[in-house]
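Extended Data, panel c. Modelled sequence:
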Amino acid sequence: MKLSRLAALLLIVVALWRIFAAPMVTKIVVSKFERRLTAYGPDGSVVASYPVIFGRAPLGTKEREGDLRTPEGEYYVCFKNPKSQFHLSLGLSYPNLADADRGLASGAISHAEYTEIVEAGRAGRIPPWKTALGGEIFIHGEMNDRPGTAGCVAVSNDAMEALFPEVALGTPVVIEP
């Protein structure tokens, strides 16, 4: 009887560890129209929702370095920076394959850059951030009273402190118009 109680206790401890050790945010959706970031949990329920600001040129997706636009599309968290100049930050996998397709078709990037972006996406790595398409797009803190960002998504520092430990590398991020 003692062995079955010990086994039951061990199962409970393991279950609790899995619940609390695993990141609770499994998907992030940013709505540019609603100016809101919504974080979803493993069961698809809303874990948190925060107001955001984004690029100073709000209409359309990012097309090139310096256009002050926030990209639109499907990305993933490819980098976590606990020492960001913007409090804490989650790096996004911009440019992705769709961005690279547009960039190659328009002549903005070379075939070699295109290949690097595609390979980084397949491997779940950080894509090249120093191309004509731009890069280093983050979800970060320091929203404050600024009118917009250079293309990132900014939330309050409190929101970033809640999100940062709950988001794992590879977490999908969808940025909607």
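The first strand starts at residue 27 and ends at 31. This feature is highlighted in the accompanying rendering.
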